[in-house]
Amino acid sequence: MITYRPFRNYDPPAIVEVWNDAFAGRGASLLRTPAVVERWIASRPFFDPSAFVLAFDGDRPVGFVLSGPGSNADASAEDRQIGVTCLLAVIVDYRRKGIGSELLLRSQNYLRRNGATTLLAGAMKPHNPYTFGIYGGSDSPGFLTSDQDAAPFLEYHGYQGAGTTLVFQRRIEGPLNIADARFGVLRRKYDLQIVPKSVLGSWWQEVQFGTMEPVEFRLDDKLTGQPMAAITVWEMEGYSWRWNTPAAGILDLYVDPEARRAGLGKFLVSQLLKYLQEQFFGIVEVQITERNQPAIALFRSVGFEPVDAGRTYKVDPRYLDPLDDDDE
Predict the structure, then answer these.
(1) Where is each N-acetyltransferase domain found (predicted)?
(2) Residues 253 and 116 in one domain
(3) Which of 48, 55, 148, 161 is deepest in the core (most CB within 10 A)?
(4) Is the pLDDT score of 328 beyond 90?
(5) pLDDT for 325
(6) Which domain holds residue 124?
């Protein structure tokens, strides 16, 4: 008989057991220690054990679902009117037995009872309370299409695609071969700075990144000292174990509007790749929304290739049953 209950403090080893069985694809971090659960999930200020439901067959853990709130408009606080089913896992031997459907229902009921009127599945910026650092790759892309069971399962339960993020990677073990006639002028005009990213922006970003220490690569104008372009990178340690090579993830790229269309973004990315290659990284990943065609063109021009895509989904309210006192 399958039983369900909320998270308890001694559950991380069980979560790791389910995780490494259920999430065996390219886009999930390989969890090597239960401490990862504390770092990336239980340490969140809005973490609620009732939002983390585990399924058991006797004493054997066979699945779980993790839910959380979305972000408000300026990323300064959570917004519980938006609820996100962030992760849903069932080990391979127990699939197609109704466990996933029951876990999803319990996630939906939890979110609705805590004020959610919009229900999403798949954590994607800005509504990504969990998954960064352990699922999805360099950022939070929603559920990956390489996890082939996700889309048909969610669509069966009334969810429709609500946003797509494309995942690009570049291998850098070999020659980089990035040439541009503008680079010579840019080298004379700008200084490359590599500094710790001590301020991450919004409260929501601070929560996502936790104890992670990203690095900023910045191009400063030699005459004015003003930063004109910047890119933020982090070491994807858990994914490095999965991909068998050190990996780095690009979080964002900014070019001052007055300096755009002059090759500055391409030059900065080329310098980043050169530095990471010298530090013996093997893969660099970036995620870009499908609507951002200029960024897609930029990263393709320096050798990045598509390897996956992620989607977030929104449920059609007609698929939701009325809540009653027994929906716990």
Answers:
(1) 2-179, 176-326
(2) no
(3) 55
(4) no
(5) 60
(6) 2-165+311-319
